[in-house]
Amino acid sequence: MQIAERHRFILEALRQKGAVSVAALSEAMDVTTVTVRKDLRLLEEKGALLRSHGGASLPDTYVNDRSIDEKMQIRVEEKQRIAARAVELLQPEEAVIIGSGTTVRAFAQAIPKTLKLTVLTGAMNVSLALLDHPEVELVQLGGVVRKSSASVVGHYAEGMLADFACTKLFLSVDGISPDFGLTTSNMMEAHLNAKMIKAVPQAVILADSGKFGKKGFGKICDIEAVHTIITDGGLPDAARRAMEDKGVKVLIA
Asked: How many other β-carbons are positioned within 10 Å of the β-carbon of residue 192?
């Protein structure tokens, strides 16, 4: 089966089932899983599907709230590269805010244990990732716990931000649109994220290329409100130009 035939087969399977696994496609097309993963990557770059850890699903413009366990299985390698690139922006002894999400969790895990920092976060998984970093002073925001994101939201968390001065924010989002801005699936989390962006001179967004062109229910801010977006090489050139035209620095990991 040639590449064009495989791609038609994959897209037809997605139309019929909504989601497919690498193993099932490998067996059905009589090719290796490596070949299937390459095909899925190419189709994702064209915007035809959304890859996950073990397969793919049809893309959806609007983002639904998903559990953190589910999100951890999506675009794992891309998140790790984004995290490593974000670490390069850290300076010794600075105070930073880290938001919630699986990409910023990967970022927290990538921070060297020898780097001295003060980290303010509402994400419990970020705090857990930094517990064994002896040079990191942790400040945990309090509030109502959102179990799906392992983070806190609400006016208690928002009120604490006024008591600290931080240099940068590292934030994950669910959707990025040049026209509508940055969004997440929960309105309370969107409100807290907006407060975080206003509390720092530089907001750095960590988002894989699959987040571009998507919208969540809660708007965080316009694109112009952020300083830098770090994403992966799957970002289309047109999307990159649209961000840069808004004055945002785009880094490809």
From this structure: 28
For 203, the domain range is: 69-252
Per-residue DSSP letters for 109-139? HHS-TT--EEEEESBHHHHHHHTT-TTEEEE
What pTM value is reported for the model? 0.75
> How many residues are recorded in the chain?
253
Closest Cα partner for 110 from 133, 84, 134? 84
Strand 202-206, strand 168-171: pairing: parallel
| SS3 category, 79 | helix
- With respect to residue 241, please indicate whether it lies within any of the assigned structural domains: yes
Regarding whether 98 and 144 lie in a shared domain, the answer is yes
- What are the b/e assignments for 48-84, b being 16+ CB within 10 Å? bbbbbeebbeeeeeebeeeebeebeebbeebbbbbbe
Note the pLDDT tens digit of each residue in 145-202: 988 888 999 999 999 999 999 999 999 999 998 888 999 988 999 999 999 999 999 9
Token pair, residue 112, equals: 């060297």
